[in-house]
Amino acid sequence: MTFERMWADIAPVGRSASSQGYFRQPYTSAEMELRSWFAEECARRGLELERDGNGNLVAWWGSGDDAVLTGSHLDSVLDGGAYDGPLGVVSSLAAVDVLTERGFHPRRPIAIGVFADEEGSRYGLGCLGSQLATGLTTPDQARALRDRGGRPLEEVMADAGLEPALGRSAWLDRVGCYVELHVEQGRNLIDRDAAVGVASGIWPHGRWRFDFDGEANHAGATRMEDRRDPMLTFAMTALAADEEARRTGQRATFGRIEATPNGTNAVPSRVAAWLDARCENDAMLGDLVATLEKRAGERAGLDRTSVTVTAESLSAAVDFDPDLAARIAAPGGWPIIPTQAGHDAGILSTAGIPTAMLFVRNPTGISHSPEEHAEMADCLAGVEALADTLAELAR
């Protein structure tokens, strides 16, 4: 089976020997190796590969407009899982093989896309490649981005051997609809005992930076009552985020912090912390963040510190095309479920392209972690589901 061969080929790329997690950050050697692998697989199938100036790759089966686009991404979060992104890319190539074996000839072109920097792990803005391709992020906004080492996007792309030309991608005008296959990032399909599901929409989500400022001081010589410790303000804010999210059934996570001066024997002068928040609708998201900002400010008053909150990214709720979802789900009787994770599919839908998603069951329910998984039988079921979907849309 071509899926199994391809999966075995990419499994070692970017994998940590210690954690068994993946480090496939954008434009690093691991991700660039996967891009080269994708190009080779496209050449093996006679697909015409196109590279845009935003770092995206698109392979075409057939010519003309109104294409059915599928695909996903190849980059990962830090110490991430194997399936988030690459499962959709490998499944897309395997689905083309299934259709070829069936003798299928698409009347609409079929394209496979690999979107750049979907995770936002390097520049802090999720789905950067698709945002640039659709024009939802402008070239000037992208040029202002810096990675943790202070390097601008275009410089990093050029050093990786790419030719950056940031701006809306012309190939997008040839696309009539988009279908993305992805490993499920949750337990919905486990609870439903279903190998495959179809997405109804994506919860609104965003990232906010909380800067807590206090006063650096000696960890031993400074009495507790004399301290202006921003770490305490942050800690209470993190607990408040957990409390509010649990109370309302939403999601709130502080997953990244930076302390200054970051010394073991020093009270920090500043703590920067990044909040990832996701809610059922836009109003609930706004209420959650406003509540956390208020509670952080109240705690800062007690600690004699200060807090500044800056929105770094915000994605509104996405409702996928309901007719397209129903059309895709009906033949296999697949459940239609929401997702709380952001995807390139959400960006294309926001840009006005009819969009749908297929999910493959994850028996661990864990994602963005080395524990992320999908059984081979379910992966192959996903390939068949995607092939059937592409055939339905492209015939």
UniProtKB/TrEMBL annotation:
It comes from Nocardioides luteus. Binds 2 Zn(2+) ions per subunit. This is Allantoate amidohydrolase. One of its GO terms (molecular function) is metal ion binding. SUPFAM superfamilies: Bacterial exopeptidase dimerisation domain, Zn-dependent exopeptidases. Zn(2+) 1 binds at residues 73, 84, 182. The lineage of its organism: Bacteria, Bacillati, Actinomycetota, Actinomycetes, Propionibacteriales. PANTHER family: ALLANTOATE AMIDOHYDROLASE, ALLANTOATE DEIMINASE-RELATED. Keywords: Hydrolase, Metal-binding, Zinc.
